[in-house]
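B., you asked whether I could sanity-check this one before it goes into the benchmark set. Here's the sequence:
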Amino acid sequence: MKTVILGKRSNLTLCLKKTFKNTIVLSKSEIIDVNIKKLPNKFNLIINTFHPSNQLRSINNFENFFENNFIYVSKFLDSITHNRINKIIYTSSSSVYGDIKDYNNIRNLNALSKLLIENYLLSLNTLKKKLIIARIFNMYDDNENFSIISKILSKLRKKNNLVIFNKGESIRDFINILDVAKIYSQLIKTNILGIVDIGTGKGIKIIDIINSLKIKKFSNFNNSNELKISIANTKKIKKILNQLNIKSVENFFRKKGYKINNISKFSVPSQKNYYEEQNSLAIYGCGYSGKKIYDQIISKNSKTSIYYIDDNKKKIGKFYKKAPIISLSYFKNIFNYLNVTNIIIAIPSLNYIQRKKIYLKLKTLTANILILPPKNEIINDKIVESDVRKIEFSDFFNRDSSKINPKLIKYLNKTNILITGGAGSIGGELASQVCKTNVNKIIVFDNNETELFRTVKKISNKKIIPILGDINDKIFLKDIIKKNYIKHVFHAAAFKHVNLLENNILYAIKNNILGTLSVLDSLNDNVKSFVLISTDKAANPVNTLGISKKISEIISFYYQKKILKKMKLSVVRFGNVFGSRGSAIEVFLNQISNKKPLTITNKNAERFFMSIKEACNLVLQCGSLKSKKNGIFILKMGKPIKIMKIVDDLLKHYSLKDYPIKFTGLKKGEKLKEILTSSKKIYKTNHKDIVMVNEKNYQDNKVSDLIRFIKNNVYKSQDDKVIKRLKNFIIN
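And here's what the prediction gave me:
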């Protein structure tokens, strides 16, 4: 069958004439004037009409440009019946993959015109089942002066000045024009249709070619428009490439009489080409969790470029859907060319030592390293994208997280939940975790509009209903609980910053004590359980925060005994959590990022610490544990840690030596050391990481009198009087 080639002047046409036996080549004028009847009744068509490459830098005549790139093609196709065409190849360019929206680059006009014709051809239903769009990557040959290969050759022959961009670090997939012609000759015989990348599938650094040829002198310019990497996806033509002896760049130069060493090639297994400009991300670990994260990301944006890094040699070189799986060493080699903005470590089974080992390997590449929580902290094996968070110093802390007992969270199934302070650190984390249970509805209640918006957006779950309100608005809260048939309440709303509350005593009491009273008064008989989030500061309290939370505990026990008798009460105490807003770790990190001295109260100060996820896991499980009278659940946080030890580890983690540290001394209300309970008798529970204690029992009538006193005096601006009465009540 004869092959008609449109475009007489191109070098590719000359090569195609030699490769194809029976050809009819039509110039631009012949395309218009040709007697269509003289063409064969059936023929293959190759379209090679395009503006000369060497004139793309400065287009003087745009009429000629559009005639060359579009008009002649459309006129020819309009003049014949399409059933005469057996197969059609349109010669396009890999430049269509680039940032063609950069209007300052005139060469992008050529890429746009290529896309225009591609879309035009694809819109012709009569040609769709015959059409191949050949997107040629970096084509070169002896008789052109456009490609970098020809310019390097010219430098070798004539000693002309060689100009490269960005130190020649760009990677290109170079293919010889003769090989393109051979691929065309095979391609037209196959059933392959649609868009086909024409290249070798392997990239070479431009600077590596220059160095291998021992070219010493050249000019370098920085060019932000220069693409970092351009490699063809040869999946469609893999069989053809295997049959052909594709000429390498090295052999091209050797045949010209130049000595050149073999050059390292870059190739990435892919379901698409590597002509990257868009941002992408990498997932470390192509296991169950990594695949779940991939699926959720792609469901939101199918165009996201994702790469997998894995240590399993059996997985390397394969794919999960469209994502290639590569080794870490290879990923490091090509990282600078992939525009990877984030790396997600998606292996929840890692212990803190393994996690740190991987982090240290990755941190030289990017600071944007994200992580999934440890396996023990994942509820019902549900992996969701909102679990992904920035890797933190606490992730390398020498502490094994507590395991979840699924039986202890079954009480939440098919119920409606209320979380007060739901936009805070603890409340937001509780909401996120409850979403993974079989709960029906979660009311996230908070008075901070901005944080409420952020929390709901971050969790992104249909079960969540955000409600803006104040816990002291009892009528409104009561209505919310009734209308939504709330079964379980987690009361996390509270002020928690020791220093701040020392100067705002009455407001701390209004929020922490009266707020708790308001929530308790809002409960009805349908509410089965009430969980009060308390703090280690409530054990032998000396500051406003501790006193207000201790009184909240006492009042909750009173209500459960006298008013809400059928309701299960769980008072839960724990210390500092990594990841909460305003925590010591967050303060230190902010100081480091702003290059300010680290402020420490005392070198002997120590605190309890656990991750926010683990703390909230345990809080949820407390809701189903049996409690003794006035029993307080204590989360086992291990031994207290000296703040100086944390600071030392933090500075080592960030490779900071001789960093300034300022000792400020203990402020009003601060302790040198914290305790979780004043009780010496500790009871075991059904969870090994939760214990229970009984502390001092307070007489009902005295608690009732105290409540009246608080209500009567808290609005009289007598903070000294109120706080003194509260202190005396706790002691006596």
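One thing to flag: Residues 51 and 68 are 5 Å apart (CA to CA). Otherwise nothing jumped out at me.
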